[in-house]
Write a structure and sequence with these properties.
Protein Transport Mog1p, Chain A; 2 helices; two-stranded antiparallel ribbon; seven-stranded antiparallel beta sheet; mainly beta; 13 strands
């Protein structure tokens, strides 16, 4: 599968704009990789653009795209913690999954996000100090939300609190775009990365090239 990156002139132009002002407002537009949500996206100094197979997002300063470009890692997340997982993506990273419903992870409308077991994904596991990875002992739904990204697609989001066999808890969250059958998910949200920062990436989503 090929992975394309945002064009050099566009990135350069955005870099110059940000350097001059510190912040740059981008309003929604066709295939605009820095646009986000209904009110546009503010690209802060240090933010970068990322294009994964025509799925465009803006990454906050310090975030990196790893593996094949579908693993978006916040600063401070140990990339080696993805070793031994099916995807090679650390649990605290934001993973892009194309064809999620087609692959059997979710239904086409995202209704499974209302289910107690809607969190299940192959890499969502509890980790112990010994390096073993086990299924949570229990899970409870914590939140359900919906919003629209700049290119007009609806996002359905769900979050769960998972209790591990040792009694520790972790939060897992999934954002699903029914129209594009694209999912963003974080197996175990990092304690030092706010949900808003994870969601900032999703809200910067522009699928206008991807869904055509």
């Amino acid at each position: 599968m090929s992975v394309r990156t945002a064009s050099g002139p566009l990135v350069l132009g955005l870099t110059l704009l940000v350097a001059c002002s510190g912040q740059t407002d981008f309003t929604p537009g066709i295939a605009h990789p820095a646009a986000s949500a209904s009110d546009g996206h503010v690209l802060n100094e240090g933010d970068t653009l990322h294009n994964y197979n025509d799925i465009n997002v803006a990454l906050p300063s310090g975030w990196q795209a790893r593996v094949s470009g579908d693993c978006l890692t916040p600063p401070g997340i140990d990339a080696s913690r993805g070793e031994g997982t099916d995807s090679g993506c650390p649990a605290g990273a934001l993973r892009i999954r194309m064809d999620a419903a087609e692959g059997g992870y979710i239904d086409r409308e995202g209704r499974r996000l209302d289910d107690a077991d809607g969190w299940w994904r192959p890499d969502t596991r509890c980790s112990s100090s010994g390096g073993t990875r086990t299924l949570p002992a229990s899970a409870r739904s914590a939140e359900r939300d919906t919003f629209t990204v700049v290119s007009g697609e609806r996002v359905e989001a769900g979050e769960w609190v998972l209790t591990c066999p040792d009694g520790s808890e972790m939060r897992t969250r999934i954002w699903y775009v029914p129209e594009a059958d694209v999912e963003f998910g974080v197996s175990a949200m990092a304690s030092d990365v706010s949900r808003d920062e994870y969601e900032r990436v999703v809200r910067s989503l522009d699928l206008s090239r991807y869904v055509d």
